[in-house]
Amino acid sequence: MRRLCYRRISGRELLFLGLELVDLLILQVMLMILLSLTGSLLLTLPLVVGVYFLIRFFKKNKPRSYTERLIRFLLRPRYFNLHSTDPGEVREA
User: Fold this and answer.
1) Residue 10 above 60 pLDDT?
2) Nearest of 84, 71, 28 to residue 52 by alpha carbon
């Protein structure tokens, strides 16, 4: 079957164990925080595995990049000032 675009563009977004890059970064940060707080791998590993299954359950039947879009939505400003200038807007001559 011939593809209509490059292989890398239409490739899989899932990297490892069915998770995307943002999900893996969340697990990595969680692992680092828990290891620095507890210092014990026996306590940390079950918690990270639990978070992995929570992410998998949360992402079931969701579109790709759902976690990234949710984080961006939660971190955006709640309101925008009408009189503030946006650095990206075009200035009049």
Assistant:
1) no
2) 28
pTM of the model: 0.63
d(CA 51, CA 75): 21
Residue 48 token pair: 């990270």
Q: How far apart are the first and last CA of the chain?
A: 53
The pair of structure tokens assigned to 78 is 């709640």
What does the block give as tokens for 68?
């990234």
Identify whether the C-beta of residue 21 lies closer than 8 Å to the C-beta of residue 38: no
Contact criterion met (CB below 8 Å) for 30 and 22: no
Q: Which two tokens stand for residue 43?
A: 């306590």
Residues sharing a CB contact under 8 Å with residue 26, sequence separation 6 or more, in sequence order? 51, 55, 67
- What does the alpha-carbon distance between residue 83 and residue 73 come to, in Å, rounded to a whole number? 23
